[in-house]
Amino acid sequence: MSFLAFGVMLLCILFETSEQFAYNLAGKMPKYRYSWIGLAVLLHIILLVFWFLALKLLPLSIAMPLLATTYVTVALGSRIFFKEEIDLRRWIGIISIVGGVILISVNAQ
Fold first, then answer.
1. How many domains does the chain have?
2. Taking the CB of residue 47, how many other CB atoms lie within 10 A of it?
3. How does pLDDT run across 25-55, given as a tens digit for each residue?
């Protein structure tokens, strides 16, 4: 995987995670609901631009599993920013996703 493809995938993960946080805040802050939803939609549009670029640089069979790391970033970010608990089953899922991403990244070389 090239440095450019790696950077684009990181941006995809960042924007997807931020979008999910904005939707979460829209549910928690009714007074600012439409502002958070507007931000989430904007983040999604930006994500789509980077996603199209990622698909030009990587095969879908590699890019899609790498995007699955958003499950990890959302879970860990929710733990840090929203004080949500992560139970044993979710930790096992997070470890499984990270292991799968490592396997895909190694085979992509």
1. 1
2. 22
3. 999 999 999 999 999 999 999 999 999 999 9
Contacts of residue 84, Cβ cutoff 8 Å, sequence gap at least 6 = 78
Answer yes or no: are the C-beta atoms of 40 and 26 closer than 8 Å: yes
Write down the pTM of the prediction. Answer: 0.89
Between the alpha carbon of residue 30 and those of residues 26, 27, 39, 82, the distances in Å are 6, 6, 14, 16
* Three-class SS of 43-97: HHHHHHHHHHHHHHHCCHHHHHHHHCHHHHHHHHHHHHHHCCCCCHHHHHHHHHH
Residue 7 sits in which domain range? 3-108
Residues in the chain: 109
Q: Which residue's entry shows tokens 């190694």?
A: 106
Residue 100 gets which letter from DSSP?
A: H
Q: 87-107, pLDDT tens digit by residue?
A: 999 999 999 999 988 888 776
The amino acid at residue 11 is L
Q: Which two tokens stand for residue 48?
A: 């789509």
